[in-house]
Amino acid sequence: MREAKKKIAEPSTGPSPDIQTVHDTTYNLLRRLGLTTIFGNLGSTEQPFLKNFPEDFQYVLGLQEASVVAMADGFSQATNKPVLVNLHTSAGTGNGMGNIMTAYQNKTPLIITAGQQTRKMIVVEPMLTNRDETMLPRPWVKWAYQPVRAQDVPAAIMRAYAMALQPPSGPVYVSIPLDDWDQPALGDAVVRTVSSRYAPDPDRISLFAERIRKSKNPALVYGPEIDRSGGWDAGVKFAEQLRAPVFFSPLPDRAPFPQTHPQFRGALPMAIGPLSKRLRGHDLIIVIGAQVFRYYPYVEGDYLPPGADLLQIVSDPADAGAAAVGDSLLGDAKLALEALIQLVPKSKARSLPAPLRVASKLPSPPNDPLTAREAFAALSELRPDNAILVNESASNAEDVIRSWPTVQQESYFSFASGGLGWGAPAAVGIALAQKKTGRGRPVVAFIGDGSLQYSIQCLYSAAQLKLKVIFIIPWNQEYGILKEFAALENTPNVPALDIPGLDIVSAAKGFGCASVLTKTKEEIKKAFGAALSADGPTVIVIPIAHEDRPLVPPISD
Question: N or C: which end of the chain has fewer CB within 10 A?
Fold first, then answer.
């Protein structure tokens, strides 16, 4: 039997310039969908998509894929629009997975595309093949797909857009072989519109309203979906109408209510027993736009205090299904609040809750080194009214929130997953949104010295884009949050909880940022004032004292 001659196909020179390609059709679709800002870290499998990059698009380079995803997340949250992310096949997807998980839990609509090897070689799995391409990003994407043929790429991106935007919004993933882009298209892509919110069932919200009207001492627990839905004003109006105290849901990633409002009572504890104790005396807990509840360490106790019932209004069926207690209603937070305002009359018999106690005064003279609260208080003296706060200082998060109370909507951003490395690049994306939209709000990011190391590459992007973002780095040379866990879990002598030897000032300068070490209140204020006047990013490093604090503060019986 004659052996067949082996033949290797010659490289294609590309289609005729008169033929509309998948590349042409896809870029036209992206224009019509408003996806003209692309965040990425390109590789060989992405270059066919990015060739002859159009002048009306902007490519935002991140030096590592985790930073790329978080920058896009921040940009999407700050613009309230879906965003396109372009990653390098499975290798880049793997690098970005931590922040893809965070984007999923943040409910951020990201359309993530990844390159794939040439279709003719996928069967032999050459290097950089995105093997089992829809499996890697799961379960942290709403939908994952690789088109069966090149001509399906535009339709797949249209479907991805629809899936990402519909509630609960979140990231989606499309793997695209690199030789698809030069293939002839079937014509212009079909553009569809989809709903980004849905109203609660009228009968069920009427039932909820009746239970609220009958309550003697209700408590409101507001969650991040209120801020995401634009329901800030409705939330304030309903709280004032009900004359009930307002708590933040545990570990909030958005601020849904003004923290200086007389009815605000702080964030609920992040453990079962302490949370239940905090709500004692209330006969009805009304949770709007949040999980029930986002716990962190396990501290035993009852889910609810004795005699209390719980109502939950949330847009995500998974959050409703996972609740340990209570009755749920699916719906958009803003639409639900507006409906409740009409259905629940203003309370006349119930007195307003007592004001929250004011924090104790700062010590005089100050500590040396300063405590986190002292350092943050010095910064707050110069805080612009319209500043946006990004918080990823895990062991000092409460000090950040108390020193910088949120007083207006879309002003506080944190991460819902607990995975470090999101905050700094997310601040870059938020600052870019301020620049592109012309809002010009300064972005101040509180990032722990350990947290910064997970995504320090984002400082390069901030410098190259000349963004108005100020990174505040409380420098305690330790993983403070893990030491708090060690005390809670009774695990002495755990190694690697100290991180000495980090020269953050020099590293930040190496990426192109202005950077300064400040030790006193006066030095902090001087550096912060200069940063507010600067045209680009600034990193302010503040040595702070070690503090032994309980991870879950005790609540008296």
Answer: N
Q: What is the pLDDT of residues 98-142, one digit of tens each?
A: 999 999 999 999 999 999 999 999 999 999 999 999 999 999 999
| Nearest residue to 196 via CA among 223, 229, 218 | 229
- Separation between Cα atoms, residue 557 and residue 554, nearest integer Å: 9
Radius of gyration of the chain (CA): 25
- Going by C-beta distance under 8 Å and a sequence separation of 6 or more, which residues neighbour residue 297? 270, 271, 485, 488, 489, 551, 552
Sheet containing strand 412-413, edge to edge, reads 412-413, 388-392, 443-447, 469-475, 538-543, 514-517
Model confidence pLDDT, tens digit, residues 447-495: 999 999 999 999 999 999 999 999 999 999 888 888 888 888 889 999 9
Provide the pLDDT confidence category of residue 72 given band limits of 50, 70 and 90.
very high
Distance CA 33, CA 55 (A): 17
Q: CB-based burial of residue 117 (10 Å sphere; 0-12 exposed, 13-18 middle, 19+ buried)?
A: buried
**Amino acid residing at 410:** E
Q: pLDDT tens across 235-272, in order?
A: 999 999 999 999 999 999 999 999 999 999 999 999 99
> In angstroms, rounded to a whole number, what is the distance separating the alpha carbons of residues 29 and 166?
19
- Checking if the pLDDT of 358 tops 80, the result is no
Token pair listed for 65: 């894929």
| DSSP per residue, 136-200 | TTTTSSS-EE--SSGGGHHHHHHHHHHHHHSSSP--EEEEEEGGGTTSBPSSSPPP----S--PP
Predicted confidence (pLDDT) per residue in 158-202, tens digit: 999 999 999 999 999 999 999 999 999 999 999 999 999 999 999
Q: What pLDDT does 9 receive?
A: 47
Q: What amino acid occupies position 200? A: P
d(CA 49, CA 181): 6
- AA letter at 214: K
- C-alpha to C-alpha distance for 377 and 388, rounded to whole angstroms: 16
Three-class secondary structure of residue 116 per DSSP: strand
pTM tops 0.90, yes or no:
yes
DSSP string, 205-217: HHHHHHHHHH-SS
Backbone angles phi, psi at 62, to 5 degrees: -115, 145
Tally of CB atoms within 10 A around 328: 20
CA distances to 318, 472, 477, 487 from 493, in Å:
39, 30, 17, 11
CA separation (Å) from 128 to 4, 8, 117?
Answer: 29, 20, 7
**For residue 355, what pLDDT is reported?**
67
Task: Confirm if 429 and 78 have CB atoms less than 8 A apart.
Answer: yes
Q: Given its phi and psi angles, is residue 137 left (phi above 0), alpha (psi -120 to 50 degrees) or beta?
A: alpha
